Amino acid sequence: MYSEEDIRRLAWQSRRGMLELDVLLGPFVNEAFRDLAIEDQDRFVKLLDSEDQDLFMWFMQRSVPEDPDLQRIVELILARVQPA
């Protein structure tokens, strides 16, 4: 389980300096992270270790992560911002 201090640290790590990433990752960690299953929370933490260029390509749907864990969390984040 992640503490509030951990979540604040993740929110800081979510600030990437690329607007397209910041508008996805920041709100996700602040508004949705607490409600995720622990496995998905762990996936989000793993996602933050990825390079910005990879994140950009995945979130712009120009490529998909090879790692199924990363693919799942990318899909969760995109599903949150895309209309049904």
Automatic annotation (TrEMBL):
Protein family per UniProt: Belongs to the SdhE FAD assembly factor family.
Location(s), subcellular: Cytoplasm
One annotated Gene Ontology cellular component of this protein: cytoplasm
Gene3D superfamilies listed in its UniProt record: Flavinator of succinate dehydrogenase
Keyword terms, alphabetized: Chaperone, Cytoplasm
InterPro entries hit by this protein: SDH, SDH_sf, SdhE_FAD_assembly_factor
UniProt protein name: FAD assembly factor SdhE
Superkingdom as given in the UniProt entry: Bacteria
Entry-linked PANTHER family: FAD ASSEMBLY FACTOR SDHE
Protein source organism: Nitrincola tapanii
GO biological process, one term: succinate metabolic process
Pfam families per record: Sdh5
